[in-house]
Amino acid sequence: MNLDNEIKKIVEAAGASLYDTEVATEFDETIFRVYITNPEGVSLDMCADISNDLSPFLDVNPPLSGAYRLEVSSPGIERRLSRPAHFINAIGEKVKLKVPGQDRLKGILTAADENGITITSGDQELHFGYGEIAKARTYFEW
Among 6, 11, 29, 70, which one is least packed by beta carbons within 10 Å? Predict the structure, then answer.
């Protein structure tokens, strides 16, 4: 059984899409985060409903050993990009990239596929394979 696939099924049954999962530690507490998206937006009620749907499943199929807290939320306007699907869905958005050996890059994500991405930064068009990108996220200029 693939845990992410099972979580995805539960999230989709509630009318949302699974964006990502992560394990974080904050103030000596382990948190299992499930990020969801929805074209109409993600409400607190939707997060609560999905959390209630996931809890019994995760009680039987724990995502990690030991105690943890389940948190269901939207990935937010400034979100981490880690999978090809994340990049493909973010085409047209502003991104920040950390590429080893280069200064932090900012630009518009103009193309993405299963192999890599293209960003426009100033008057340059830059291409990167996913293996070259150490860290990536969307950003919003306030």
Answer: 29
